[in-house]
Amino acid sequence: MYPPAPIFELKNVTKQFGNFQSLTDINLQIYPGERVALVGSSGAGKSTLIGLLNGTLQPTQGEVWVLSRNMARLRPKQVRQVQRQIGTIYQQFHLVNDLRVIHNVNAGHLGHWSFFKAAISLLYPLEVEIAAKALMQVGIPEKLYERTDRLSGGQQQRVAIARVLVQDPAAILADEPISNLDPERSREIMNLLCQLSQESGKTLITSLHAFEYARRHFQRIIGLQQGRILFDAPTEEVSSVMVDGLYKINPHTYREIGGK
Amino acid sequence: MTNNYNPKFPNRPSLLNWRTLWGLLFVVSVVWSLQVGRVFQGDLVNTGGWNLVFRFLVAVLSPDLSPEFLLLTLDATFKTLAYAVCGTFFSIIIGLVGGVLSSLVWWKSVSFTGFQAPWLVVRAILTIPRAIHELIWGLFFVNIFGLDPLVAVLAITIPFGAITAKVFSEILDETPHQPLLAILNSGVSPLNAFAYSLIPQAFPNLLSYGFYRFECSIRSAAALGIIGAGGLGDQIFLSLQSLRYEQMWTLMFALLLLSGGTDFFSALLRQHLGIPSRLDLNVLNIEQQNSLDRKEHSPYHFLHRDLVVNLSLLGAIFLLIFSFWYVKADFTKLWSPRTAQLLSRVFQDAFPPDGSQLSQMFTLSTQTLAMSILASTSAGLGGILLSLIAARKSEGSGETPESKIQTVLTRFLLLFARAIPEPIWALIFLFVLFPGILPGAIALGLHNLGILGRLMAEVIENLDQRPLLSLKALGASHSQVFLYGVLPLTLKRFLAYILYRWEVCIRATVIVGLVGAGGLGRLLTEELSSFDYKGLLTTLIVFIGLTFIVDMISALVRRTLS
Prior knowledge:
The complex is a heterodimer. Chain A has helices at about 45-55, 75-85, 100-105, 115-125, 130-140, 155-165, 185-200, 210-215, 240-245, 255-260; strands at about 10-15, 20-30, 35-40, 60-65, 70, 85-90, 170-175, 205-210, 220-225, 230-235. By secondary structure, chain A is of the alpha/beta class.
């Protein structure tokens, strides 16, 4: 039922930070156009997984394949070429606060722009129309020339999404995009992300703290617990027993429920 | 504009704003300074000097390591260190007393009626010693006390004490006042209330600034050598003038060790104490609140736990005793009748000031200003570039062995640039450049480049890495991450540092003037050495006026850009 080539593939991936093993022996395939939610309690390894997928982290063991290329085998320039195809949104927004919105949005072009063009644009903003259109799509066109740190949290997350729109990647990764927002803002942002992914057919992978959003918006849910995949199933097959197991502290639960 | 047709989009903001205004003024002032420095007229290089430069550079390979000379070097090093320690000790005492007395919160605590006249008076008194460079104080005291170690200690103490007092008072005024008010309201005397609330609260910041002053004192003590006050600067000056470059390099290495060691130790201690970058206290007042929050329980608690801290406390006491013993300054001279006599004669001689040379002073003022602009511009731009290489890379950002070597090498270059006192740099450049403001500007620029580069590297190291990583994650190259991440996040602070160094540079033009680099500094030193106190007073007034104008412009730029 899936097209043959996965956009992301993890083969026996383990990631260690010092003595702490964040991810253990992960095998995973994600195909173009899928909408996948990563769920699990904090420290389950969701952010690490996102970092491996967008090339900011390298696995301690195993291989990460993105767009059919082994990330460990690429030279820095090639890594950047792959990274252009992946847009990431973060819990803390990770925008450059001291820049105007237009420049943060235009940063989405950086993978394609020359250094010279990037420098000129800081002095005299270029491609304003594209940026304005992206901001229109996320609903804050009037903030084009505002300083980014003057915006509210929800608005900053919209700027981050506009940056990804300008980047126009094949896949969007979102690392807990709504954890810092109130419920109303959370709903808006989740709707926006899913709508954008549906309209353009882009792959969307979102890590989420709260299970409810995952069930409502995604086709496939991957449950992580203490660095291991507890379950990986289409949304309709995820039972409440599986979800309960996810948030238990007992390290041995995964064997009983995961059944592998 | 492209988006005028859509009423929902805001128009491009006008290009007419403070930023472009200051930008244009900056460009104009740099061109003007180059003009004043006669850079466009050619004929700057004295080609006959290359021979000396070659000899000078080759000598680095064969420093004089004979036992007698090493002993002399050691003595000079101890002397410089001892001057710095004694100077810092006294300036911190002055700083504490003056800081409390010139803080608004003290006068509010003493009288609830809001009578603040004494506050203004103390502040005004403290501005004068601050505006005059250590070296001018030094030359002045040489006239009074002769070549006594006392000169060096006093020359550091007086201006540094006044600066410390100003910064301490600002720290005290910005520390939260609720605990103080609570104690005061229960009937405790202001002095006791201060000792139990405000001083302990502000302690980490006061200590941090104290370290910074010590680093400055070391550099200053070395520079003071060239007026004959002894120590490393004195010896370097002598060996440079008598063309004994092998000896000069030995002394230079000693100075590098001393200065580098102090910087390293100060950084280590600050890290162990968990206190903020010391210059931030001087330039920006943003970080303090955070650092206070971190230490909300007991500000003194760290003093009893950390081995490094305990050892350095012991070391500091030992160093202080050693320094006073080594300096052998004759402090009785301070209150001897002869000193009082000489001082009163100087004051009688100085009045009324001599106003006959005002037109000449205008020309000299423009030279001094141009020199300071060229120096701080080159130091600022160079500092930004070098700090990028000098900043230690964070983990996971692709640190390679080559980049590590680059980092270490650049750090050493910066250390070298700041360890060498400005007048020594000026003398070196006078080998190949004709006297004028250009060698002075280069000397000041190099010394400040070393200071700025290190401060900026610290800022870059402390940056929030997440926005930078997110730019990298979307495929931006290193240079683009710099442009869209590092630069916007640091520019404001870099500008503040550069402006602060400009204020320092304008004062320091005096000391390169001493070796013939032109400007008001040269006139000042001439008047001092010919005991022309009337002329000296006039020049000083003009000079202080100039520094105030620079301070005001700098403050205005910072305010309008924040």
